[in-house]
Amino acid sequence: xxxxxxxxxxxxxxxxxxxxxxxxxxxxxxxxxxxxxxxxxxxxxxxxxxxxxxxxxxxxxxxxxxxxxxxxxxxxxxxxxxxxxxxxxxxxxxxxxxxxxxxxxxxxxxxxxxxxxxxxxxxxxxxxxxxxxxxxxxxxxxxxxxxxxxxxxxxxxxxxxxxxxxxxxxxxxxxxxxxxxxxxxxxxxxxxxxxxxxxxxxxxxxxxxxxxxxx
Amino acid sequence: xxxxxxxxxxxxxxxxxxxxxxxxxxxxxxxxxxxxxxxxxxxxxxxxxxxxxxxxxxxxxxxxxxxxxxxxxxxxxxxxxxxxxxxxxxxxxxxxxxxxxxxxxxxxxxxxxxxxxxxxxxxxxxxxxxxxxxxxxxxxxxxxxxxxxxxxxxxxxxxxxxxxxxxxxxxxxxxxxxxxxxxxxxxxxxxxxxxxxxxxxxxxxxxxxx
Lengths: 215, 210
Known about the structure:
The structure holds two protein chains of two kinds.
Chain A: H1 9-36, E1 48-51, E2 57-60, E3 64-68, E4 74-80, E5 86-91, E6 97-104, E7 107-113, E8 119-125, E9 131-136, E10 142-148, E11 154-159, E12 165-171, E13 176-181, E14 187-193, E15 199-204, E16 210-214
Antiparallel strand pairs in A: 1-2, 2-3, 3-4, 4-5, 5-6, 6-7, 7-8, 8-9, 9-10, 10-11, 11-12, 12-13, 13-14, 14-15, 15-16
Chain B: H1 3-34, E1 43-46, E2 52-56, E3 59-63, E4 69-75, E5 81-86, E6 92-99, E7 102-108, E8 114-120, E9 126-131, E10 137-143, E11 149-154, E12 160-166, E13 171-176, E14 182-188, E15 194-199, E16 205-209
């Protein structure tokens, strides 16, 4: 073994060892900061999928967010649908659409469907932007509607299984009126204001002849 | 190994250590200068058509290819939680929200006027309203303040014209004129009698049965 001729050599090596420890600390700190502040890449077209242990998943795409259950059925969607409508869709455990809130031809609609996919309840604005509540039967025939007429009067309409109006209750600014019709569409009972301004009750037969009137 | 050789190697190591330290300190300075907290940066996903979906701390926003916001779920500026759908011009046309801790579904026209609303009122009773372009309620179905279900129609002046309602004992239907006078009443009276009456504009009965 040879002895060092430089008396400072031991001190210089000690400084190097100290410096190495400090530098290692700095490098580790940089790595930690990078990891802690790491960002996902900027706008990208790759869907982001988050999955849980049950197999359920949420997928974020450029169209919206969809949530699937463990069976793979899409149970909820929020975004722009296949027809280009902004939409919120909720489906049942079989993957059938049961409720949808969306803009149809730029008008708001909330629809509820039965298990057969028939529209059974609907809340919407019509072409005049007037609100409507519509209830339909299992054949998707309209049976009840609460709406405003084309003249703007509020009206409740009740319809037969043939979707023909059977009764309606409405009002204009002058007076309300209640009308009951038979299957042929003939008015059989009328109560409320007449066009001449009077108010009363009328019962008619199937040929529309007055059977009884008051006052 | 000679002392001279060893000294030269140590000197080389010292130079290398100074250079590495400078590089490491530079990298640290760069990282500190550019680092961002993860939660503050929205996640953006783009589709092939140019539409985007942005997930931020405030919620999820969907934009079409013209960058118009078409849907949002999250907090609105008033910090209510809301789902909103917007038309192609960016106007909100449908909203489902919890406002002041009460649920609300609202459909709006192009001018931003609420035209149909379904909500729970301050007493947690359900109400459905159809309003005209001026915001006047023209039809409403609701549970009244006495717990009575009621369907009510209103004129363009917002005054009630007709209603059908029921108590536990029986139902009644009332038709009013523009002045607010009840002109037709069908059903149960406050006395408990059931019948039909027609009144004139002064409120005097012109026909009563039975």
